[in-house]
Design a protein that fits this description.
Blueprint (H helix, E strand, L loop, with lengths): L12 E4 L5 H12 L3 E6 L6 H9 L4 E5 L5 H15 L4 E4 L14 H29 L2 E6 L12 H21 L4 E8 L8 H4 L2 H10 L9 H12 L10 E4 L7
Parallel strand pairs: 1-2, 1-4, 2-3, 4-5, 5-6, 6-7
Length: about 260
Protein backbone atom coordinates (compact mmCIF):
# COMPACT_ATOMS: atom_id res chain seq x y z
CA UNK A 1 0.00 0.00 0.00
CA UNK A 2 1.31 3.46 -0.88
CA UNK A 3 2.48 5.58 2.04
CA UNK A 4 0.37 8.68 2.63
CA UNK A 5 1.41 11.94 4.33
CA UNK A 6 0.51 12.26 8.00
CA UNK A 7 -0.39 15.44 9.86
CA UNK A 8 -1.09 13.63 13.12
CA UNK A 9 0.72 14.94 16.22
CA UNK A 10 -0.63 12.39 18.69
CA UNK A 11 1.90 11.56 21.40
CA UNK A 12 3.87 14.78 20.87
CA UNK A 13 4.27 17.70 23.25
CA UNK A 14 4.53 21.30 22.02
CA UNK A 15 5.77 24.40 23.82
CA UNK A 16 4.39 27.67 22.44
CA UNK A 17 5.83 30.96 23.69
CA UNK A 18 3.62 34.04 24.12
CA UNK A 19 0.68 31.65 23.84
CA UNK A 20 -1.92 33.83 25.53
CA UNK A 21 -3.37 35.60 22.50
CA UNK A 22 -3.11 36.19 18.77
CA UNK A 23 -0.89 33.88 16.77
CA UNK A 24 0.34 32.07 19.87
CA UNK A 25 -3.16 31.19 21.02
CA UNK A 26 -4.27 30.09 17.55
CA UNK A 27 -1.16 27.95 17.17
CA UNK A 28 -1.57 26.29 20.56
CA UNK A 29 -5.16 25.34 19.72
CA UNK A 30 -4.26 24.13 16.23
CA UNK A 31 -1.48 21.90 17.60
CA UNK A 32 -3.86 20.53 20.23
CA UNK A 33 -6.48 19.82 17.58
CA UNK A 34 -3.83 17.87 15.65
CA UNK A 35 -3.16 15.70 18.70
CA UNK A 36 -0.35 17.37 20.64
CA UNK A 37 -0.26 18.08 24.36
CA UNK A 38 0.52 21.73 25.02
CA UNK A 39 2.86 23.69 27.28
CA UNK A 40 1.71 27.31 27.29
CA UNK A 41 4.52 29.83 27.70
CA UNK A 42 2.82 32.91 29.18
CA UNK A 43 4.24 36.29 30.10
CA UNK A 44 1.69 36.29 32.94
CA UNK A 45 0.69 32.76 33.93
CA UNK A 46 -2.44 34.01 35.72
CA UNK A 47 -4.01 34.97 32.37
CA UNK A 48 -4.14 31.50 30.83
CA UNK A 49 -7.25 30.00 32.40
CA UNK A 50 -9.62 30.20 29.44
CA UNK A 51 -7.02 28.85 27.03
CA UNK A 52 -6.24 25.97 29.37
CA UNK A 53 -9.94 25.04 29.32
CA UNK A 54 -10.04 25.22 25.50
CA UNK A 55 -7.03 22.92 25.13
CA UNK A 56 -8.49 20.47 27.67
CA UNK A 57 -11.80 20.51 25.79
CA UNK A 58 -9.89 19.11 22.80
CA UNK A 59 -8.84 16.16 24.93
CA UNK A 60 -5.22 17.21 25.40
CA UNK A 61 -3.03 17.66 28.44
CA UNK A 62 -1.98 21.25 29.06
CA UNK A 63 0.49 23.02 31.35
CA UNK A 64 0.49 26.83 31.77
CA UNK A 65 3.96 28.20 32.49
CA UNK A 66 5.30 31.55 33.67
CA UNK A 67 7.63 32.37 30.77
CA UNK A 68 8.63 35.93 29.99
CA UNK A 69 11.32 35.36 27.34
CA UNK A 70 13.21 38.48 28.46
CA UNK A 71 13.99 36.66 31.72
CA UNK A 72 16.25 33.70 30.96
CA UNK A 73 15.75 32.30 34.45
CA UNK A 74 12.03 32.04 33.69
CA UNK A 75 12.76 30.50 30.31
CA UNK A 76 15.02 27.85 31.78
CA UNK A 77 12.58 27.05 34.58
CA UNK A 78 9.63 26.81 32.18
CA UNK A 79 11.48 24.47 29.83
CA UNK A 80 12.59 22.24 32.70
CA UNK A 81 9.06 22.18 34.14
CA UNK A 82 7.57 21.20 30.78
CA UNK A 83 10.08 18.37 30.33
CA UNK A 84 9.47 17.12 33.86
CA UNK A 85 5.69 17.26 33.44
CA UNK A 86 5.35 15.75 29.97
CA UNK A 87 8.59 13.78 29.70
CA UNK A 88 9.76 15.67 26.61
CA UNK A 89 9.31 18.71 24.40
CA UNK A 90 8.98 17.52 20.81
CA UNK A 91 7.85 20.80 19.26
CA UNK A 92 8.86 24.40 19.98
CA UNK A 93 7.05 27.38 18.50
CA UNK A 94 8.96 30.61 19.09
CA UNK A 95 6.09 33.08 18.88
CA UNK A 96 7.15 35.85 21.30
CA UNK A 97 7.93 39.13 19.55
CA UNK A 98 7.33 42.88 19.70
CA UNK A 99 7.27 45.62 17.06
CA UNK A 100 7.56 49.17 18.42
CA UNK A 101 7.29 51.44 15.39
CA UNK A 102 9.32 54.60 14.96
CA UNK A 103 10.99 56.47 12.11
CA UNK A 104 14.64 55.36 12.03
CA UNK A 105 15.82 58.82 13.06
CA UNK A 106 13.68 58.68 16.20
CA UNK A 107 14.42 55.13 17.43
CA UNK A 108 15.57 55.25 21.04
CA UNK A 109 18.19 53.02 22.58
CA UNK A 110 15.51 51.65 24.90
CA UNK A 111 13.27 50.63 21.98
CA UNK A 112 16.24 49.12 20.14
CA UNK A 113 17.44 47.09 23.12
CA UNK A 114 13.94 45.92 24.08
CA UNK A 115 13.13 44.71 20.55
CA UNK A 116 16.38 42.76 20.27
CA UNK A 117 15.92 41.38 23.77
CA UNK A 118 12.54 39.83 22.94
CA UNK A 119 12.84 39.05 19.24
CA UNK A 120 16.44 37.82 19.04
CA UNK A 121 17.86 37.05 22.48
CA UNK A 122 14.66 35.50 23.82
CA UNK A 123 14.21 33.41 20.68
CA UNK A 124 17.84 32.31 20.61
CA UNK A 125 18.06 31.12 24.18
CA UNK A 126 14.61 29.52 24.20
CA UNK A 127 15.76 27.54 21.15
CA UNK A 128 18.99 26.67 22.92
CA UNK A 129 17.36 25.46 26.14
CA UNK A 130 14.72 23.40 24.34
CA UNK A 131 17.25 22.30 21.73
CA UNK A 132 19.44 20.69 24.37
CA UNK A 133 16.58 18.42 25.41
CA UNK A 134 15.76 17.63 21.79
CA UNK A 135 19.39 16.78 21.03
CA UNK A 136 19.46 14.31 23.91
CA UNK A 137 16.50 12.48 22.39
CA UNK A 138 17.52 12.85 18.75
CA UNK A 139 14.22 14.41 17.71
CA UNK A 140 12.70 17.86 17.54
CA UNK A 141 10.65 20.30 15.48
CA UNK A 142 11.25 24.04 15.91
CA UNK A 143 9.23 26.74 14.16
CA UNK A 144 9.99 30.43 14.41
CA UNK A 145 7.19 32.95 13.98
CA UNK A 146 8.97 35.44 11.79
CA UNK A 147 7.46 38.04 9.50
CA UNK A 148 7.40 39.17 5.91
CA UNK A 149 9.31 42.10 7.43
CA UNK A 150 12.36 39.84 7.36
CA UNK A 151 12.12 39.80 3.55
CA UNK A 152 10.83 43.30 2.74
CA UNK A 153 11.22 46.80 4.15
CA UNK A 154 8.37 48.31 6.15
CA UNK A 155 8.48 52.07 6.79
CA UNK A 156 9.13 53.05 10.41
CA UNK A 157 9.89 49.43 11.36
CA UNK A 158 13.66 49.27 10.76
CA UNK A 159 14.54 47.58 14.05
CA UNK A 160 11.69 45.07 13.80
CA UNK A 161 12.59 44.26 10.19
CA UNK A 162 16.22 43.77 11.19
CA UNK A 163 15.30 41.31 13.95
CA UNK A 164 12.99 39.30 11.71
CA UNK A 165 15.70 39.06 9.05
CA UNK A 166 17.93 37.78 11.83
CA UNK A 167 15.34 35.16 12.76
CA UNK A 168 15.25 33.92 9.16
CA UNK A 169 19.01 33.44 9.15
CA UNK A 170 19.06 31.90 12.63
CA UNK A 171 16.58 29.39 11.24
CA UNK A 172 19.05 28.37 8.54
CA UNK A 173 21.97 28.22 10.98
CA UNK A 174 20.18 25.97 13.50
CA UNK A 175 18.78 23.81 10.71
CA UNK A 176 22.26 23.13 9.35
CA UNK A 177 23.82 22.60 12.77
CA UNK A 178 21.14 20.33 14.26
CA UNK A 179 19.68 18.59 11.23
CA UNK A 180 21.93 15.53 11.38
CA UNK A 181 20.76 15.00 14.97
CA UNK A 182 17.08 14.75 14.18
CA UNK A 183 15.90 18.35 14.52
CA UNK A 184 14.24 20.44 11.84
CA UNK A 185 14.04 24.23 12.14
CA UNK A 186 11.75 26.35 10.00
CA UNK A 187 10.35 29.87 9.95
CA UNK A 188 6.87 31.12 9.03
CA UNK A 189 6.70 34.72 7.86
CA UNK A 190 3.18 36.16 7.95
CA UNK A 191 1.87 39.38 6.48
CA UNK A 192 -0.46 41.57 8.56
CA UNK A 193 -2.82 39.37 10.56
CA UNK A 194 -5.82 40.45 12.64
CA UNK A 195 -4.60 40.30 16.26
CA UNK A 196 -4.66 42.50 19.34
CA UNK A 197 -1.12 43.56 18.46
CA UNK A 198 -1.93 44.74 14.93
CA UNK A 199 -5.33 46.23 15.72
CA UNK A 200 -4.03 49.74 16.61
CA UNK A 201 -2.49 50.22 13.15
CA UNK A 202 -5.12 48.31 11.18
CA UNK A 203 -7.87 50.42 12.75
CA UNK A 204 -6.50 53.36 10.74
CA UNK A 205 -8.61 53.22 7.52
CA UNK A 206 -5.86 54.66 5.32
CA UNK A 207 -3.24 52.27 6.67
CA UNK A 208 -5.57 49.30 6.35
CA UNK A 209 -6.45 50.20 2.76
CA UNK A 210 -2.75 50.43 1.88
CA UNK A 211 -2.04 47.02 3.45
CA UNK A 212 -4.96 45.38 1.65
CA UNK A 213 -3.74 46.83 -1.64
CA UNK A 214 -0.20 45.54 -1.06
CA UNK A 215 -1.46 42.03 -0.28
CA UNK A 216 -1.48 41.73 -4.01
CA UNK A 217 -3.12 38.38 -4.71
CA UNK A 218 -5.82 38.06 -2.06
CA UNK A 219 -6.44 41.69 -1.04
CA UNK A 220 -7.42 40.92 2.54
CA UNK A 221 -5.89 40.83 6.01
CA UNK A 222 -4.82 37.43 7.32
CA UNK A 223 -6.34 35.46 10.19
CA UNK A 224 -4.33 33.76 12.98
CA UNK A 225 -5.63 30.31 12.03
CA UNK A 226 -4.07 30.70 8.58
CA UNK A 227 -0.64 30.98 10.18
CA UNK A 228 -1.33 28.23 12.70
CA UNK A 229 -2.14 25.77 9.92
CA UNK A 230 1.29 26.30 8.39
CA UNK A 231 2.92 25.63 11.76
CA UNK A 232 1.02 22.36 12.14
CA UNK A 233 2.21 21.29 8.70
CA UNK A 234 5.86 22.12 9.38
CA UNK A 235 5.97 20.14 12.65
CA UNK A 236 4.03 17.18 11.25
CA UNK A 237 5.50 14.00 9.75
CA UNK A 238 4.38 15.30 6.35
CA UNK A 239 7.11 17.98 6.47
CA UNK A 240 9.97 15.75 7.63
CA UNK A 241 12.20 16.72 4.66
CA UNK A 242 11.72 20.48 5.11
CA UNK A 243 14.26 22.40 7.19
CA UNK A 244 16.01 25.76 7.09
CA UNK A 245 13.07 27.18 5.16
CA UNK A 246 11.15 30.44 5.50
CA UNK A 247 7.53 30.03 4.45
CA UNK A 248 5.95 33.33 3.48
CA UNK A 249 2.27 33.55 4.41
CA UNK A 250 1.71 36.91 2.80
CA UNK A 251 -1.31 36.64 0.52
CA UNK A 252 0.85 37.53 -2.46
CA UNK A 253 2.49 40.70 -1.04
CA UNK A 254 5.98 39.64 -2.20
CA UNK A 255 4.75 38.18 -5.50
CA UNK A 256 4.65 41.61 -7.08
Amino acid sequence: MDELPSFDLSGRTALVTAAGRGLGRATALALAAAGADIALGLRDVTTGGELVERVESLGRRVLPLQMDVTDLTQVRSAVDAAVEHFGSIDILVNNAGIAPGNPAEDVTEEDFDRTLLVNLKGTYFTSQYVGRHMLERGYGRIVMIGSQAGEIALPEESVYCMTKAGIAHLTRCLAVEWGSRGITVNNVAPTFVETDGTRPVLDDPAFRADVVERIAALHRIGRPVEVAGAVVFLVSPAASLITGHTLLIDGGWTAR
